[in-house]
Request: fold
Amino acid sequence: MNGIFGDHRRPGDGKSAGTPAISVRNLSKSLGQKPILSSVSFDISEGELLALLGPSGSGKTTLLRIMAGLDHADAGEVYQPETNQEEIWFKEETIPLPTCC
Reply:
């Protein structure tokens, strides 16, 4: 599949050095017969910012849902190399909202 995620970075191709904080390896996801993500791989180093850009239906939200543990990929993995975790789960927090007036 050649699309928004078709030309991704390979490990070590980025400018940042050291062990990545989050690694995504060969993620694939389909809805029915329609491929949404196809072999997506990238690293995010600590302090690095990443922007996902693309048209509606290109898989941005699907990728983020898989990374957050809210959805499962058909293939591939999301992990934190330093902790050797294969799945990332974020703890649930209650964030106080500011009161108005």
Notes: Residues 1-9, 87-91 have pLDDT under 50 and may be disordered. The longest helix spans residues 60-67. The domain at 1-92 is CATH 3.40.50.300 (Rossmann fold). The helical segments are 60-67.
